Amino acid sequence: MSPAGADLLRTIGYLVADARGRVVGTVEAPMYGSTPDVPDAISVRSSGFFSRRRRLVPAAAISEIDSRSGVIGLSVDRDAVLSF
Questions:
Q1: Which residue from 31, 37, 46, 55 could staple onto 41, CB 3.0 to 4.6 Å apart?
Q2: What is the dihedral of CA 2, 47, 83, 72, to 10 degrees?
Q3: Are 29 and 50 in contact (CB under 8 A)?
């Protein structure tokens, strides 16, 4: 079950973890694709001081969003997420 577009708008700065619990990075911004007003993915910047890698996480890969702790859990492994 993927989250609603409104949920993705409020996730900037959240920590993203893959299905094994490993940290993927932090949310930079929602990404728009199919419709101009509803985000269907998020851009995640890898953690690290000199890291420039970003990953595109589709909404279908998100299993849960915990607003209390600021963590997004993915249903896939970190290697399955596209990087750009």
A1: 31
A2: 0
A3: no
Digit-by-digit pLDDT tens for the chain (84 residues) are 456 656 788 899 999 999 999 999 999 999 998 888 889 999 999 977 777 889 999 999 999 999 999 999 999 998 899 888
Range of the domain at 23: 5-83
CA distances from 28 to 1, 42, 43 (A): 22, 7, 5
**Cα separation of 61 and 83, whole Å?**
14
- The domain total for the chain is 1
